[in-house]
Design brief:
By secondary structure, this protein is mostly beta strands. It contains one helix and 35 strands.
Amino acid sequence: MFILKNSSSISQVAGLGSPKFRQAGSNCTLSFWYYNYGQSVGAAEMHLVVDGLKEPTVLWRAYYNEGNQWLKAVIQLGRLPHPFQLSLDKISLGFYDGISAIDDIVFENCALPPPALSCEGPNHFWCRDTKACIDSLLVCDLVDNCGDGSDEENCNPELQCNFENGLCNWEQDIEDDLDWIRIEGPTPTVNTGPLKDHTTGTIRGHYLYIESSKPHQFQDNAILLSPVFNPPGNETCIFNFHYHMFGKQVYKLSVLQRTVSNIKGWLLWYKFGNQGNRWIRQTLYISSSKPFQILVKGTVGDGFTGDIGLDDLSFLGCTLYNGNLPTISTTTSGTSVPATLPVNNCTEKEFVCRTSGHCIQMTQKCDFRPDCSDKSDESSCVMEVCDFEDTNQCGWYQPTLRQMSRNDSIHTTNIFKWELGRGANLHPEEEKHCPLIDHTTCTEEGWYLFADSSNGEFGHTADIATPVISLTGPKCKIVFWNHMNGTTIGSLEVLSKTSNKTSKLWTQSGSQGPQWNRAEVFLGIRSNFQIVLRAKRGVSYMGDVAVDDITFEDCSPLLIPGRPCTSEEFTCANKYCIPKDNLCDFVNDCADNSDESPTI
């Protein structure tokens, strides 16, 4: 069907109306092919007209000449419980020069689910009136999947939010860069954001979105905080939500989880880039041994066509926690310590074992050898082996970020820094300069540590350091795996830092290929020092530096035995015992160099 101009009036509208439909199922879509070609061909709009609503809902728009070609349009209608019609309006202002046509109109998946003779098993729900058998995951998700509303009855309203009456029990984070905006109908900017909500599918329904236009800047974040939930234990806790990411400059939507209120949490899921003009359902399975909170983070793209929408958030199998998440106070090593110590007679130069109150020398703290029965002398230290699984940083911390976090006016969002990452969370094309698999598990689900070069500028550095290490033995070395692949890789350095001196122990620059590479750095005997990994950013974002499986090998200091050395051992001047095979081997095994003395 095509349009002919048959009048000389200034403003002309050609309308094409559909029959009236009684209702539509939750997965209903409409597709058609259209042709809009010519110098002054004008605009076209598809409207949804629902009984009981005075104002039509815009479902689709074409603004201008789109070339001498047929193009396909797909419109998501979703569940419409009331009678409705569709109308296609073509508008010409004054001079009309072109051809507009439509063909192959198809409705798909628009019927209600068919009735079933039986519906058994814990994974199914039998609808009350329609007798349809649906997946139990579709129950209490704010969508009428049955067609009779029975799957949305007897649901806990505190576990659901469709934003029709505000934010429910969700809250805006006060420490982010902008807020999620509650709106009905289309967002203010054309060619980005939803035209309608997901709950009602009409202009009268509400949803949340982030505005990517100025004054907001690239990588500004808007964070929405859930209520606090009990740990699910052996039960299954499910988070369902619908998101809309349409626009050429859409950036990122993330979901995070936290068990402590003053941290940003760990990443559960994210999606990057333009996903089309549609609402998409996402289901996440949540596990936790502690009370937890969910954070939904929208990140602004590099331009005004980057609006992101959010609607119909629901939890299934989860229970609300009656209380707030704890906060965590950190020592210089970044780990929590008890507020009170057991009764003890230790001096200021001694460390108090946390359980027994036993005293040990302060030099025995953080020396890779547990001297307290509860190992508390090694609890606030760097771990001997770190694979970053379970998003554990093993005591490594970023000194610069810690200083910035003490200043509330400074945001650390866009600075060059180390972050935990995994291949499963990469966006398209990012695997060219960031590892697709970790070294530990060799899978996309495994975690590693990387310096994200999409932040910062050329020459910026990012440091991650151990807490102070009191003492190491003569054979101590650090072994780690690094991944440096990309066209603009900077460098990676291993530094040793004391109170008044920083020395470079190892360095590597430039792309090293698309694989994990082993590195080994000898440390030997050192005291009161930190190891620092320093990444330097290259000229562009195409060069992330990553590390994994960091191990301190043979680093515990020598131990004076409570016995004389055997005939197979050499007695060092400081009373240590070492194997005689280690004499005169150019290695200071005794720690006082007496095994390398020319008088031996």
